[in-house]
Every structure is written in C-alpha cells, then in structure tokens.
Design a protein that fits this description.
With 559 residues, this protein is of the alpha/beta class. Helix content is 53%, strand content 11%. It is built from 21 helices and 13 strands. The strands form four sheets. The chain has a five-stranded parallel sheet with strand order 6-5-4-10-11, with helices on both faces. It has a three-stranded antiparallel sheet with strand order 1-3-2. Helix 17 runs antiparallel to helix 21 and helix 19 runs antiparallel to helix 20. The protein is flat, with a radius of gyration of 28 Å. The two termini are 34 Å apart. Bound molecules: arginine. Arginine (ARG) binds next to strand 10.
C-alpha cells in the first residue's frame, strides 16, 4: 500500500539522490495524491524547477501511476484509483486492530506526567483535561511502539497541609471525613481561611504543624496520610470511570528525601545564589524570574520538587522524552525548570516538553470558577453526563441490552471527545448538552456511526478474498483513500502531541461514510457489488474502532 515509498524509490533512481523527505501530500485532491517540489534541486542541476519537473515527468513511469503532471515547479502524481483502493483494503483487512500502528518508538521510553491533582482538594477541571489528553497521548505513543510510563505527580506536599491539620484539629469530624472526605476537607480549608482573618495566630499554628510534618512527627504524618488516602480513593473513582491507569503514582512528597541532595547539586554547579536567606538560581539574564529553591524559613517549593523529580525520572527510566501535560498557566514554571536542567549541563533538557492546554470555559464564555461556593465536582459532572446519556440511549433504542454499560461508555466518550476534538492549546467551552448530542462533532456521533457499520456487518460479512475495485465510484475511492491516510494521521497527531488531529480525521471519515450510506445500499442482489461495499464498510469500521480506542473512547458495537 505504501505508494509513497515506491514513488520515493523511483525518484531516487531517476535523480541518484534520496528525496523522500520532500514528497508532500497536496492541499487539494485535484493536484494529485503526492507532489514533489523541484525547487531545491535547481542549484544542483543548474536548471530551473519547471525544466527539472518536465524532464522527470518523462522518466517516471509505473503501473500504479495513472498520471504524472507538471504544474509550476511541482510534479504531481496521481495513483491509479483501483490499485490504491485494492491495496488499502488488503492492508486493513490483514492488519485489523494493528492497522495504523508503527514500530517507530521501539526500545524508547516516554514519561508522561499527567493528571496530578492536589490532595485534600476536589479533582479539578484542569486536571480532567490533563488526564484526558495525557491518556490519549499514551495510547498514541504506545501504538507507535514506545514504552510509556504515566506518572501521577500528586500535589501532596506543601504548607497547606499544616493549615489543614490545624483546621482538622479545631473543627474536624471523623464521621464526616469518612463519609464525604473531599467535601469535608474542602470545608475545613475554607473555614481556615475565613477564621484566620479574626485569629491570625492560626497561621502560626499551621506553620508549626507543617514543620512537624517535615520533621516526620508521628501525629502529623498520621493525619496527612489519612487525608492522602481518602483523596486518592476519591480520585480513583474518576480514573475508573475514565478508564485511566498509571504506571507510577508518586506525588511531590515522594521526593522529600532527595531535596537536599538536589540543592547541593545546584550549588556544586556554581548556580546557587543566596538572597536574604533564601536560595535561588538567578535566571534574570534569560528573561525569567529567578528559580526559588529554598525559602528563608527553610521550606522547599513546588519547583524544588519538580527538579528532583526530573533528575530521578531520568535516572530511573532513561526516557527519550518526558511530557508534562499541564495547563498553560504554568508555562513560566516549566521554562524555569527546563532552564535549570540546561544550566546543570543536562543535554536532555531538550527532551522535556510542556504539553500545555487551555482552560475549560462555561457556556457564558467565562472561565469555569473554582473558588469557594462555585466549585465543580468532576465526579458529579461525570455521573450527570452518564445519566443524561442513559436517557438518550433509552429514547433512541428502548430494546437495547446492557443499557447501563452503554450509557457509561457514551457519557464518558462524550466528555473525552468533547475535549479531544479541540486543539489542546485552545480554551474549550464545557457544554455537556452539546457533548452528548448524537449530531454534530461529538463522541456519541462517532460511536453511533461505528455501531451502525457494525450492525450491517452483523447481517453479512466480507467473504471474498479478491474485491473487484472497478465497481467503486469516485466517492468510494475517495473514502478508501482517506482510510489509507490513517497511519499518517496517527503519526502526525503523535509527533505534535495533538490528539485533535486524529479526532478531526475521524469526524471527516464518519461524515463521508454516512453520506455513502445514504446513496449506496450495501445489501445487493449482485454478490460482487455487495462484497465490494461490505469491504468498504468493514475497513471504515476498523479505522473508526482503532481511532476511537486511541482516544480512549469505547467503540461500541451496539447502542
Ligand atoms: N498539582 C499541580 C497542580 O494542580 C500539577 C502538577 C503538574 N506536574 C508537575 N510535575 N508539576 O497545579
């Protein structure tokens, strides 16, 4: 099926030079399937690009080429449709679940720092984005042969836990904590902040509890651990619903015993500066605020722990890339982190990438608030969406078996796709009703399209080994051409860390197959025609299945 490599080989023979990197896919189908710009060859051959293209067009001939056309300095290649369609069918039917995968990442490890909510707080809406996008990237990278380590870098350390212990000691309630830990802890946190205005001594008490925590005081540790366990149990409910797992859950606290050594390393490299009792790395000449590593009261910071974490992960995993799937508002933090790694002499600072994302906005276009009183509980949002999906499924298909399972997959798929169909760097309007609609650019629309194809294939299947591709019309050839691009799309989405490239492709393909469906009855009297159309349905179904799975969405067979 790989016409591109075949073409590259022909060009190589004609030019005595490997030019495969120059082959492009033209912006419009009218310009052919592949195009070769001759501009960069002008110097070597001392001829103008049009002349080069004309001469080449006479040399390059093969049965799979229907037409070779010169246009300006470009050489446009038209692959013979029937041959292309036949090759696509054979490949997809043979490779099945593996269709579109590659071995590019074989032997290489990628670390993805993702999700990373803060304990004793509700799972934030930004953490949801990180979880969804991070997990899609994990699937994409795995499909390309990489070994992926997903790390949940929990926010489980910092002065706030001193405050929380203080609040719990004053107003805490064991029964409430057990029943509804996240709400209770949040209430305590809010109460602390209102009370401290009247009773400033609480601040001091909070500091002293955090100090005890840092000194491994048994009581402080016991409470902290309790908060952590309860929080994690709550987060796990969300991960379970979303179908997300982690290879490593090690929060900020995991690096506590590595922080002194980390700061020593920075000192040995001659980078550490003392300023009013605090320790920092001066980054002013790089146009950044300085990287504070230890405050004057001795406390370490988020950045100190991230520095220790980066060093530890490099040593542990020897990663080829480390991705931080974290909101764009932390851009400066990661710039500082990567700069300090660079100054420490680690060339691999270039392999660290802040894969940032935008915000979720409310339907009013404003940032979804997370301040007291307006906090959104992700678990509730997910449950509500599933309930909504249940209603819709009930309406559409009252006779369906396993409605709960389907509703769950549709509800979760709606949220996943609602996020993933947008360029991650942009803000997304979080609109559950839009996400769950069966029409438009939604997860349920794709799932439904997939289920529809499955239902045809339950009636009849492809039995014929050799499909007569001369029976296809232009639309059908065009659909098969798209199917043939799946691997390139997957690769593109992976390289740019942008799952929406795949999501958009799947939407286009779904639209095409739905218009095919209206005008091309699949079940036919004539067996050859029926087989040809069934084969087309089968390969599109396969690509939708593979694509949905890469986004973390269940490809349902019935809904
Ligand atoms: N817990 C942090 C937050 O909620 C996100 C952590 C991201 N990962 C990291 N290695 N800094 O803002």
């Amino acid at each position: 099926m790989d016409f591109k490599s075949k073409l590259a080989l022909l060009l190589k023979k004609a030019l005595k030079k490997d030019v495969s990197a120059l082959l492009e896919i033209p912006p419009e189908p009218a310009l052919g399937d592949y195009s070769f710009p001759c501009f960069s060859l002008a110097k070597t051959f001392k001829k103008n690009p049009v002349q080069i293209a004309q001469e080449l067009s006479k040399k390059i001939k093969a049965p799979f080429l229907a037409k070779v056309e010169v246009r300006g300095g470009y050489l446009n290649f038209f692959i013979a449709k029937e041959q292309r369609s036949a090759a696509v069918l054979t490949t997809v039917l043979k490779e099945k679940e593996g269709y579109g995968s590659s071995t590019e990442g074989k032997g290489k490890t990628v670390v993805i720092d993702m999700s990373s909510p803060n304990i004793a707080k509700p799972f934030g809406i930004g953490h949801l984005r990180s979880t969804i996008i991070g997990n899609a990237l994990r699937h994409l990278l795995t499909f390309q042969g990489y070994k992926v380590v997903r790390i949940n870098h929990l926010g489980d350390w910092g002065t706030q836990f001193g405050k929380l212990i203080t609040a719990y000691k004053q107003w805490g309630n064991t029964v409430r904590l057990e029943k509804d830990p996240i709400h209770h802890l949040l209430d305590l946190y809010v109460k602390f902040h209102t009370e401290v205005e009247q009773h400033p001594e609480l601040e001091e008490e909070g500091r002293s509890w955090f100090k005890r925590l840092e000194e491994q005081d048994a009581e402080a540790l016991r409470l902290w651990k309790k908060f952590r366990d309860y929080s994690l149990a709550n987060f796990n409910k969300i991960y379970q619903l979303l179908g997300v797992h982690f290879e490593e859950i090690s929060g900020e606290s995991f690096y506590n015993d590595q922080l002194d050594a980390t700061i020593q390393l920075v000192e040995k490299a001659g980078l550490l500066k003392k300023s009013e009792g605090a320790l920092l790395v001066d980054l002013e000449k790089f146009g950044m605020t300085s990287a504070l590593l230890r405050k004057k009261d001795g406390a370490t910071l988020y950045l100190t722990r991230d520095l220790a974490a980066a060093l530890y992960r490099k040593k542990t995993y020897q990663f080829a890339k480390m991705l931080y799937e974290v909101g764009a508002e932390q851009q400066l933090h990661f710039q500082q982190l990567f700069k300090v790694l660079e100054l420490l002499g680690h060339k691999w600072h270039r392999d660290c990438v802040h894969v940032s994302h935008g915000l979720y906005l409310g339907s009013d276009g404003k940032k979804l608030a997370t301040r007291a009183g307006k906090i959104i509980f992700m678990e509730d949002v997910l449950q509500e969406t599933i309930t909504l999906a249940r209603k819709i499924v009930e309406e559409k298909n009252p006779g369906l078996k396993e409605k709960d399972k389907v509703a769950r997959a549709v509800g979760v798929g709606a949220i996943l796709f609602g996020d993933l169909c947008n360029d991650r760097t942009k803000d997304v309007v979080f609109d559950i009703h839009k996400f769950t609609s069966f029409e438009g650019e939604t997860g349920p629309y794709l799932q439904y399209t997939h289920a529809r194809l499955c239902s045809i294939l339950r009636k009849k299947t492809v039995t014929e080994k050799k499909i007569d591709c001369s029976l296809y019309d232009n639309l059908e050839h065009e659909i098969l051409k798209q199917v043939g691009h799946f691997g390139d799309v997957v690769q593109d989405a992976t390289q740019q860390y942008k799952p929406h490239i795949l999501a958009r492709y799947l939407l286009d393909l779904a639209q095409q197959i739905n218009s095919f469906y209206v005008s091309h009855p699949v079940l036919q009297e004539k067996k050859e025609l029926e087989q040809a159309r069934l084969a087309l349905v089968k390969v599109v179904q396969q690509v939708l299945q593979n694509g949905l799975r890469l986004l973390g969405i269940e490809a349902l067979e019935e809904m």
